[in-house]
User: What shape does this take?
Amino acid sequence: MKRSFHLLLYCIFSCCVFAQKGLQIQHLSGHVYTYVTWHENDGAQYPATGMYLLTAKGAVIIDTPWDTTQIRPLSDSILRRHHLPVLMVIATHHHGDRAGGFDVYKRMGVKTYSTQLTYDLCEEGHPH
Assistant: This one.
C-alpha cells in the first residue's frame, strides 16, 4: 500500500514537471542561478540549461535561452527577483541553445560576448 502511494505521488509529480515547459529558475550557490528554457524541434520539447551570475550592477547571463521568445521572460524574472538588469550575455559556443538569442539581446542594448570562432560561426549562419 505504501509503495503504491509513493508510486502515485511520483506519477503525479512527474506529470506536473514534464507538463510545465515554462521558464524555471533555481538558486545554485551564492550569487549563481541556473535556468531552464524549452525549445520545440520536430514536435518534441527539449530543455536548455543556462545560468546567470549576479553582480552589484546587474546580471551576467551565460548562454541565451534556446527559444528567443523566452529571453524577455528571463530578463523580466531577473529584474523582478533581484531588482537588477541584465548587463551582458556570454555564449559558450555557437549552437542556438547558447548563442541563438544574441541578436535579441543586442536589440535590447545588452552587451554580448563570445570567442571569435563562436562569433564567426554565428555570422556564417550556424547557430543551430
In short: The mean pLDDT is 79.
